[in-house]
Amino acid sequence: MSTGGSKKRRLDDPGAAADQDGSTLAAEEVPPRPRPVDVGDVQLLIDERISRVEESMQRQVDALVGANAALKSHIDDIKLETEDLRRRCAVNARTIQVLKKDVKWTYSAPDIPRSHWVDQGHGGRYIAQMTEIVKKIKTITEKLRNGEKISVNLRASRVILAHDDALLPHWSELSDAIQLRGEGDLLNVSLHGIQLDRSIIEMFSQSLVSKCPFSI
Questions:
Q1: Does 16 score more than 50 pLDDT?
Q2: 16 in a domain, yes or no?
Q3: What percent of the chain is modeled with pLDDT above 70?
Q4: Which terminal CB of the chain, N or C, has fewer other CB atoms within 10 Å?
Q5: Can you give the residue range of the structural domain that contains 185?
């Protein structure tokens, strides 16, 4: 029995997709939906690129550090060579001065009278020890000037001898004698129980460079 009108199409009828003209959209003409972006994948990609950049920068930094270390080592070597040349020049200059002064050398340091020590309040034991040291300085100096291979051993065994300006000429004579020894001609120098001021130590330091072990 007809109703007099067209039957209603069921909603799930494939024909429902037909348009008013009776045509139907093909399934392949429906545009695909875009794939959702995975935030984790994006972050992983960013991390990988950052890691590659950091590795490249670290290699450059390591190369610069290595080059800087090599340059510093080279500079240190140059400094050592420069200091050695300065030292040698200073030694040679002082040797020339000594030679000019001592064309005809004689031990010129004056004797120190006993009264000098008495006036300073020293007793007989101190004076005897000081007189012995002064004589040893003169004897050692003369032997060095004559080219003898000896050690410089000055020892005050009974009392401590204080620095005194009256000894300066004697220390100067000994220092000059040491200065004239060839560089590398080793000489043992030992001073015990004798005080030296800064000027005497500096004077001996110039003479003893590269010549001997030195102990005070």
A1: no
A2: no
A3: 66
A4: N
A5: 114-215
